[in-house]
Amino acid sequence: MPVDAERLREEIRKVYSEVVRDPKRGYHFHTGPEYAVERLGYPAQALAELPDSVTAPFAGVGNPLAMGEPRPGETVVDIGAGSGMDTFLAARSVGPTGRVIAVDMTDAMLERGRESATLSGTPWVEHRKGLAEALPVSDGAADLVISNGVINLALDKDCAFREAFRVLRPGGRLQIADIVVHRDVPAAAREDIAIWTA
Amino acid sequence: MLAKKVANIGFEAVVMVDRRPFGIDALASYPVFPPEFVDFLRRVMPADRHDELVRSVVVLARKPEDTGGAHAG
Q: For A68, which residue in chain B has the nearest alpha carbon?
């Protein structure tokens, strides 16, 4: 199964653009605030305070903020922010003296995110187009880098982690939720998994 | 493997927390795994393992205060 990087990226863009356009259509993957609360342990009250346009398309795999929220005044970079559920939860924590930079490669997600920032009155959320492997963020700008179910979609995961390292200030934190394959997968299957997840 | 990759970049205090089992159905939910690959997994994996093929994890790490010697990559 050869991987065509650009084709894969385009497929990912297509799927997630569709999610943001029509989040309640019924996908073969989990989306929405109920899933986030029941399966991933997000705080229901906090999600209820966010616009539906932010929570409905959510398709993360964990809760990167559960192990520590950003502090007021901090700068957070959200890699592959999507509709921005983690972005806006972080924005609530950092407040107007902080900043959240939401990076996504999908125009539809960025457009929706900007609308949501206006709707939610959080002008300290800034949306930028970019890839996990080439973050549009200057060196050492971030106190915290988060991502949710995105690194497994990056075609060069080492590069994505190097970028996270670059944009963090010394002492800055990385908090990422993602999926990993179990160790005891049969060798034949593991080789194929490696093609897709290496 | 994920935590090791993070550590290899130069991060410190790398810990993997909040492990939740995801089955093949969940794996199928991501566009990087096409239907033919998911079907392949269903065939080669024992049925009793289908519900715990992958895990959702949260990885925490910190960039060292002194990055003079530690650099990305």
A: B60
Closest chain B CA to residue A40: B20
A82 touching chain B per CB within 8 A? no
pLDDT for A2: 44
Task: Write out chain B residues lying below 8 Å of A158, CB-based.
Answer: 5, 8-9, 73
Q: Locate tokens 């986030």: which residue?
A: A36
In b/e form, how buried is each residue of A114-144, taking b as 16+ CB within 10 angstroms?
Answer: eebbeebebebbbbeebbbbebebeeebbbb
d(CA A107, CA A17): 8
Asked if pLDDT for residue B3 goes beyond 80, the answer is yes
Contact at CB, A175 and B58, closer than 8 angstroms: yes
Q: pLDDT averaged over chain A? A: 84
Backbone φ/ψ region at A140: left (φ over 0), alpha (ψ -120 to 50), beta: left
Tell me the residue ranges of DSSP E strands in B1-73: 12-22, 54-62
3-state secondary structure chain A: CCCCHHHHHHHHHHHHHHHHHCCCCCCCCCCCHHHHHHCCCCCHHHHHCCCHHHHCCCCCCCCCCCCCCCCCCCEEEEECCCCCHHHHHHHHHHCCCCEEEEEECCHHHHHHHHHHHHHCCCCCEEEEECECCECCCCCCCEEEEEEECCHHHCCCHHHHHHHHHHHEEEEEEEEEEEEEECCCCCHHHHHHHHHHHC
Q: pLDDT for A47-91, tens place per residue?
A: 999 988 888 888 788 899 998 999 999 999 999 998 899 999 999
